[in-house]
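Figure 3 (text version): structure tokens given as input.
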């Protein structure tokens, strides 16, 4: 799972909040973790 997150991070999906859906976390976390 860490590899997938790293891949999304490079793609910038984490900034888009797509990583939340892939991680299975709530979309509400996108505001806090997505702002990393």
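Below: residues designed for each position.
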């Amino acid at each position: 799972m860490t590899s997938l997150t790293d891949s999304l991070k490079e793609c910038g999906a984490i900034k888009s909040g797509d990583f939340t859906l892939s991680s299975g976390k709530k979309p509400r976390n996108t505001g806090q973790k997505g702002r990393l």
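The chain has a mean pLDDT of 59.
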